[in-house]
Amino acid sequence: MTGKWFSFCLLILMSIFTQKVYACDVCGCAVSGHQFGILPQFQKHFVGIRYNYRSFQSVHPPLFSTDTEKVSREYFHTTDIWGRYILSDRVQLFGFVPLHHITKEEDNTTLTQKGLGDITIMGMYAIINQRTSDNGRWIHHLQAGGGIKLPTGAHDYYTGENEWIPGIQKGTGTIDFMLNTNYLLRYDEIGLSAEVGWRVNGHNTMQDFRYGQRLTTGIRSFYILHAGKNSFMPSLGCVLEQSGKDDHEGTTVDLSGGSAFFGHVGLDFFSNGFTAGFSIQPSVIQNVANGNLTSGTRFNAQFAVLF
């Protein structure tokens, strides 16, 4: 009888340690919804690149009393090739092709992911199309629309310990739907831009995983400084990101979801032929993954050719 129990326990242990582990307890964010920001000249096509840097520190609570707390760091460098095509006075088509460089550092070990992410296509409709007041001093513009994110990025990376970490995959492995609304109000050279983006995430059937729904809200004030035919536009604002909890195999992932509030300081340059700019978004208040995930300051830069 003792031999049978020993064989049974050995079989159970072997099955546990040879199966794939499908999720870490907490790690940096997966690809979030797209924010347009303050767009250049409404009736021109453009194509360009934009760069986004994000960093996270993840605290991994011990599973057992004999374990020790671990800390990892994740770094996300994303370069988007993106553009806008004007279909009509009110309808615009946007495309985003992301290229990722993702690094995770833990216990003197570095994991790196490079390559194509999930491509997104969005259509926007101008509900209020650059309406101007009688005296010409007030202008406001309201766009709304949506799109689809395609599972073009790889999402099947496993570590040397056969661990699938959702936060450092180049893609989500899901078809997601995007909704976006942005509004611009301007009085002479002073203006305000507000944007709300919502991402409805699909189900990754291969890993039986669903990322939490994402809501991103941003508001920016700006002032236009003219320099001949060109202009500079400093901006100041804030961004609020909220995420629902992830789901794995029908069970809520406890150390996921939450909210983060960022400041925004930026400077953009506009000309008839191109636009360029950068922004810094320091973290102000955040509570993500029950406080176990901390985001660092974010950096963004962009360049686009208008035609």
Mind explaining what this structure looks like?
With 307 residues, the chain is mainly β. It has a single domain, classed as monomeric porin ompg (Porin, Beta Barrel). The chain is built from 1 helix and 19 strands. The chain has one helix at 2-18; strands spanning 46-60, 70-86, 91-106, 109-116, 120-132, 138-149, 176-187, 190-200, 209-210, 214-223, 225-227, 230-243, 247-248, 251-252, 258-270, 274-281, 283-288, 293-295, 298-306. A 12-stranded antiparallel beta barrel has the order 1-2-3-5-6-7-8-10-12-15-16-19. A 3-stranded antiparallel beta sheet has the order 9-13-14, with no helix packed on it. Residues 8-24 have low confidence and may be disordered.
What brief labels describe this structure?
single chain, mainly beta, Porin, twelve-stranded antiparallel beta barrel, 19 strands, 6% helix, elongated
Q: Supply Rg.
A: 23 Å
- Structural class by sheet pairing and helices: mainly beta
Number of continuous helical runs: 1
Order of helices and strands: HEEEEEEEEEEEEEEEEEEE
Helix content: under 10%
CATH topology: Porin
**Stretches with pLDDT under 50, minimum 5 residues:** 8-24
DSSP summary, beta strand count = 19
Mean pLDDT score: 88
First-last Cα distance = 81 Å
* Percent range for β-strand residues: over 45%
According to CATH, the homologous superfamily is monomeric porin ompg
Gross morphology is: elongated
The CATH architecture:
Beta Barrel
Structurally, the number of domains stands at: 1
Main sheet makeup: 12 strands, antiparallel, barrel
Per CATH, the class reads Mainly Beta
How do the strands of the widest beta sheet line up side by side?
1-2-3-5-6-7-8-10-12-15-16-19
